[in-house]
Amino acid sequence: MTHTLEPWMPVGATKPKDDIAKIATEIGWNRLEIDRATQETTADNLVSNLTASDIVVHQFPSYLSLAFEENFQQAVQETGAKFIILIHDFEPLRLSARQDSDREYALLNRADGLIVHTTEMAKALNIPIPTFILGLFDYLTDSQIPDRNPSQNLIFAGTLTKAPWLKNFPLPIKVFGNLPRKWSPADLAPTLKLQDILPQDSAPAELPDGIGLVWDTDDTENTHYQTYQRLNSPHKLSLYLAAELPVILPSFSPFADFITQHHLGISLDDLSQLPLTFDYDPIMGKKIGHALRHGNHTKKLLQELEQFYETK
Fold first, then answer.
1. Residue 79, CA atoms < 13 Å, CB-side half-sphere
2. Dist CA 31 CA 33 (whole Å)
3. Which of 102, 114, 275, 312: CA 20 to 30 A from 145?
4. How confident is the model at residue 217 (pLDDT cuts 50, 70, 90)?
5. The pLDDT value given to residue 96
6. Is pLDDT at 149 greater than 70 in this prediction?
7. What is the rounded distance in angstroms from the CA atom of residue 177 to the CA atom of residue 52?
8. Distance, CA of 23 to CA of 29 (rounded, Å)
9. Looking at the DSSP assignment, which residues form a beta bridge with residue 176?
């Protein structure tokens, strides 16, 4: 399992990759560290211990150059090992006119397998190789989740750049995140209460009682963050569920049916439908939260992967 080292990244930016690497290690996988500060474009230093019986799951993108990604894939496959790409985000699906999108698609096509968020993402990519579905990202924490009390308070935790709707949101909401450079505090609705970013490993326990909002919109014609929500598994959704909080997400999200059928929240066509009430099942909330905090989704996925390639 690859794990990109990038200590200068903002708080929380590496949490999904860190968790997957940690879970993989717990169930017997080796960790292949890639240091962004020192890694050359060539990748020979990363494959010297590989054999043809190995499976390499690469957490993509590493945010090194595309030349590195191509060289790394080739170097792994020349050893005879299987090269599986685990997609965290795939920029050609959410950014217009991306300069090197053809090369990024070529990487996927040359892989021996793909791990994607949802079946919807698999269909959008339409890559004719073995494809595995992660579903919800796990969210590891050792912190004790407090006993939750029902609350109508709205919460948003995440990247504000993808949520320009917050500027004019008319309802009271607590927002955990950094103000983007282009946003002026004077332009924000008085109902928005900006909070400090929480430590990611303890955030599920430190979030207050309330309802977590999962809602991205676009502020330029070149971004497709809202459309991307038809395909992806938002990490903030996993955060709220790990915190045992109810959630609100778009009706077109791949997880809308899961959330409503399990009484974990509600889906909306538009934020103008707020405020509203809905049923929440705290017992199911505890069950799902426990699974996410203990890495159950990733463990199941990696076991499925091992079984599949053992028969090949």
1. 22
2. 6
3. 275
4. confident
5. 73
6. yes
7. 44
8. 9
9. 157, 195
Sheet strand arrangement including 82-87: 55-60, 82-87, 113-116, 131-133
Q: How confident is the model at residue 220 (pLDDT cuts 50, 70, 90)?
A: low
The CA radius of gyration of the chain, in Å to the nearest whole number, is 20
CB–CB of 107/126 below 8 Å?
A: no
3-state SS track over 165-176: HHHHCCCCEEEE
* Angle in degrees, CA 170, 173, 179, rounded to 5: 100
Residue pair 218/224 in contact by the 8 Å Cβ criterion: yes
Q: How far is CA 272 from CA 81, 146, 174, 248, 276, in A?
A: 51, 31, 18, 13, 10
State which amino acid sits at residue 132.
F
Tokens 């996988």 belong to residue? 29
DSSP string computed for the chain: -EEEE-TTSPTTTTHHHHHHHHHHHHTTPPPEEEETTT--SS-GGGSTT--TT-EEEEEE--SS-HHHHHHHHHHHHHTT-EEEEEES--GGGTBTT-TTHHHHHHHHHHSSEEEES-HHHHHHH--SS-EEE--SPP----SPPPPP-----EEEES-GGG-GGGGG--S-EEEESPPPTT--GGGS-TTEEEEPPPPTTTHHHHSPSSEEE-----SSTTB-HHHHTTT---HHHHHHHHTT--EEEETTSTTHHHHHHTTSEEEES-GGG-S------HHHHHHHHHHHHTTHHHHHHHHHHHHHHHT-
| pLDDT 10s digits, 73-92 | 999 999 999 999 999 999 89
- pLDDT at residue 78 in the model: 97
Task: Say if residues 88 and 59 touch (Cβ distance below 8 Å).
Answer: yes
pLDDT surpasses 60 at 11: no
* Per-residue pLDDT at 39 exceeds 70: yes
Residues 123-134 have a mean pLDDT of 97
Report residue 85: phi and psi, to 5°.
Answer: -100, 120
